[in-house]
Specification:
41% helix, six-stranded parallel sheet, seven-stranded parallel sheet
Length: 376
């Protein structure tokens, strides 16, 4: 019996969590070479967005780990010593592939931040600085343990393997498609004349610079620009600072934090905004870009390599922000007001679905069954 093991134990939030949920959902129609699939994940991934019903229909064993740190390490040992020994191929989605089993090992990195020296330096003097340095070492071990490495973009592969050029022939790039619940949403733009509605969608980390974004928009609003900024995402310890900032500014109705939004409501948030702004210094998956493209928003971002996502989907409505973000935003707003840039657009973006992402991933994993067979 050909068995695939999927290790998603460390995907708790953000794009990684939605990834495994979508993956489980689309496995419902899988009828390929793997006869048995074992998924090791956490309660969040297995219980949100009604994905459990699809998984139960699949009869895929889901090994739910405890959130307890002690039990977590017990699960790690148990999974690596026993579950991996019974699988032909293991896909590790968290990038934490620390030891080999009897089968082929495929690793996908949930974050490429630990591979960036410049971004890690932002955390000097903080506990996270040592955490990212440790992750960097663990990720390097994962690369060495892998028979194949999976990325969602070429730029992520280039950053992660900068010091591992000998591993480039093991890389496969499978781009992300749009989420299933987005496809079910009916798009109806509710536009306010002359008012530009900016949106930030992502979890809150230092390197994503969302707090800096608030101060920039406060200056723009004080200067008389008719704009607003909505921020949503998990604060991860920034909630007090964030609420203080948004409550102390002059126009609290124009800059607001609306909290962590359940994924099923995110399409409505996009539908009621005009521009996605993403000042992050590095981005692993570029999921907000793909979501914003589906709703035809203008996309302003700082991480230049993410332009690959725009070009791949033939999406033209974007601008890369330079070092002077305030100046670039002023220029963008003026072009909108002068009619050089239009916020309305009825042209559908080129898009693929996450069903295609799942099928291409499974096809890639099935290739390792053949290589294992040839080695016997």
């Amino acid at each position: 019996m050909k068995t695939l093991g999927i290790d998603a134990h460390n995907l708790r939030s953000g794009g990684g969590l939605i990834y495994i949920q979508e993956f489980l959902y689309h496995l419902e129609n899988y009828s390929g070479k793997f006869e048995r699939i074992i998924i090791w994940t956490n309660k969040h991934a297995a219980s949100d967005l009604n994905y459990v019903s699809s998984v139960l229909e699949l009869r895929v064993p889901i090994l739910l780990r405890s959130d307890s740190v002690i039990f977590h390490f017990i699960w790690v040992i148990w999974f690596n010593l026993f579950v991996k020994k019974k699988t032909d191929v293991v896909l590790t989605l968290s990038g934490m592939n620390l030891c080999r089993g009897n089968g082929k090992e495929i690793t996908m990195f949930h974050s490429i931040l630990p591979f960036s020296h410049d971004v890690i330096k932002l955390y000097r003097g903080r506990l996270d600085y040592f955490r990212y340095l440790m992750l960097r070492k663990l990720y390097k071990r994962s690369i060495n343990n892998s028979d194949g490495i999976l990325f969602s973009s070429k730029f992520a592969a280039d950053i992660a393997l900068k010091e591992h050029t000998e591993k480039r022939n093991m890389v496969s790039v499978v781009p992300f498609g749009i989420w299933t619940n987005f496809l079910k949403f009916r798009k109806e733009k509710n536009k306010t004349p002359d008012h530009i509605r900016f949106l930030y969608v992502s979890n809150f980390y230092l390197y994503k610079r969302q707090l800096f974004l608030i101060s920039v928009f406060e200056e723009l609003i004080s200067a008389g620009y008719d704009v607003s900024l909505t921020l949503c995402g998990d604060t991860y310890g920034h909630e007090i600072v964030l609420k203080q900032l948004t409550s102390s500014i002059i126009r609290t109705d124009r800059i607001k934090y609306i909290g962590k939004i359940p994924h099923k409501f995110i399409p409505e948030i996009y539908n009621n905004h005009d521009v996605l702004i993403f000042p992050s210094l590095i981005e692993s998956f570029g999921i907000p870009f793909i979501e914003a493209q589906y709703f035809r928003l203008w996309i302003l971002f700082s991480f230049q390599p993410a332009e690959e996502i725009m070009e791949r989907n033939q999406y033209k409505r974007y601008k890369i922000l330079g070092a002077d973000m305030k100046r670039d935003l002023e220029q963008f707003i003026m072009k909108v007001q002068n009619g050089e840039i239009t916020l309305e657009n009825d042209i559908e973006a080129e898009k693929s679905t996450f069903k295609e992402t799942t099928l291409k991933t499974m096809e890639y994993l099935e290739e390792f069954l053949e290589t294992k067979k040839s080695e016997l």
